[in-house]
Specification:
301 residues; alpha+beta; Jelly Rolls
Length: 301
Amino acid sequence: MLLTCARPVLNASAPHTGRVSHDAGPAADWASYWRSPDEPLEAMHAHFRGHVYHRHSHDCYSFGVTESGAQGFTCRRAGHVSVAGMVMAFNPDDPHDGHAATGQGFTYRMIHVGPEFLTDLLTDVTGCPAGAPLFAAPVLDDAAAARALYRLHGALTGGAGPLERSERLASVAALLVRRGASRPPALATPPGSRDMRQVARKIRAFLHDEYASQVTGADLAAVAGRSRYAAYRAFHDSYGLAPSAYQRQLRLRAARQLLARGAAPAEAAAWAGFADQAHLTRWFRRCYGITPGAYRGAASG
């Protein structure tokens, strides 16, 4: 099922069915969401003028194309703007935000792909094992890649079958890797940074185990064997988010998985560690642009 929000989808490349109305915020804002029922593959089509994305990240690769207007965002400690015809490429766990860079807002299409799923597809295309691609720049000015992403999005949300989806996705993924993926050279390791990365990894593992619990600064300090400030700094420097923000991302991801399996928003909120359904809804909207209920109903065969 494809969900549309507030108004019909504009400039769609294929007819859409199963539309369900949903209020995405200000009258000028709308969003449509599609989710594969059997693959780590999702797609979004949206126009935002008033909505502002809170800083967040995804546990997948995210590829987008801006259709109109301009979207501004920060990623990897720098500001970026994607205007019509540009491609956005986010690595897994890339913290970023987003907002309209002009008063007219922006329209864009986004595709989320699970890391292992993408790697498997690239292996099929190249015939040899492929490491996970790393995209050095979050914005690519590449007309061919933009057209390919646009057509892929239309196929996904327009009812293409599983085989066609995988074939198209593999082709587009290979194109994106050729055009924009790179592996930056290893940087010199500043004194003490290796130890701090080990501290950050300990904290990260702890948060993955205890994301639904009420974790305190003292807990992180104990896990890290450092002061609260040192633990915070090590984690933030390594992962680009405060530990609390990272924990919230894990809760959101857990809630998404529960919603995808049909759990009610209130149930997902409780299991994932949110204070209540309203708390989940607020952060889900801030980070994903739609409500938990809209995401729950977005599955399509």
